[in-house]
Design a protein that fits this description.
Structural class: mainly alpha
Radius of gyration: 21 Å
Mean pLDDT: 84
Number of domains: 2
Largest sheet: none
Number of strands: 0
Helix content: over 70%
CATH superfamily of the largest domain: MFS general substrate transporter like domains
CATH topology of the largest domain: Growth Hormone, Chain: A
Strand content: under 5%
Length: 215
Amino acid sequence: MAVALGGELACILLVDRLGRRWPLILGNVASGVTYMVSTAIYKTYPASVPNMPAHRAFVYMTWVYNFAFSSCIGPLSWAYPVEVLPTHLRAAGTSLTSMSAWISNFMIAQVTPKAFAAIGWRYYLVFCILSITNAVTFWAILPETKGRRLEEMEQLWRTSAWFVPAHPPRVLDAKQTEEDMAEGKIRAGVMTEDKVANSAEGRDEEKGDAPEHFE
């Protein structure tokens, strides 16, 4: 519990500095590594084998996993789907992601006892594989939303490449965006990514461009 609370506090304090994309990627990599180590320990030194150093190492791995999950995967798996969807899809999308999360939790709770009874330590391999494939998937397709307002998400997806690393969208500074909005350089729902870049660099007035409304 203390490890989880510490991880969640770290997420609260750092998420607007680190963004969403890389914490999700690295959190899943850390999760996969801890599962790999735990799987190797559990296979070699199961609970029936009296080896206290191995058992302690297994417990330590669960702590590392818990921190990685609580600081990256857990909170952001709820926050990212909410903020990344366009306004007209946000309510329905949030309902679907919440439903999917709870159905998945229910399924895992029902399957896990039977899986351990049937295949033992091999069941851990499922989570090893899924953690790494999650990290690769997030790296490939999820754009960074740090510093962007909810009204910009539709435009973000329109301008992002299918393979994000090939053409990553501009990462914005949340504080600068708020200052530009306060000064009237940009307005909610009426700016494109190019306008954000121009306003952040103080070039709007020089170019004389008028803000464009989203469709």
